[in-house]
Amino acid sequence: MCYKKTVMDKKDIYEHLAKIYLDASLKRKKIGKEHPIFKNLFFISITVIVGLTVLLLATRIRNKLLNSELALALQPDVVKINFSFDHAKKEMYTINLNGLNLSKYKVLGFAVKKADYKDSISLRVEFNSLFKEKSEMYFVDIPHKWREYRVKLSEFKNIKDWSEMAGLSFIIEAWNVREKKGVVYLDNITLFK
Asked: Are residues 55 and 39 in the same domain?
């Protein structure tokens, strides 16, 4: 075997080192260029995932709000009706609706209780429209503890047009109580869609 001795001069050495350095720096530049693409793709995908999640949650919340009960509080505070039938024949609490359009509402809700547990009281609830329509319902044996009532507005049969309502009254009549004096409390008078 014959070995050939290769002699490199300075110029060859510099070219060889430059080639090695250049190849290495080209590889680094390629790697450096690849990383920003991966970084950009990563941030874009994270942004898309977060955006879709937010959109999905916003849609669910919106649908929940649209499907939930929307209410109009007519009287949020507790109302006290004192009745004494020595002189009067009825006592009432009336909410003036001032022509309010109730056609989008479906249910009347309220809570009621009597002060004296021995008394027997019936409560009349009455709607009046500006068109002189009037409809009423009776709630018999009002309890001593708070009781929630929910009544469909369609149960008030004599009101055909709910677009201009005059008032809502809660009435205690002398012939619908056992004792001639007493107190009835009303709370959370609300209309629900």
From this structure: yes
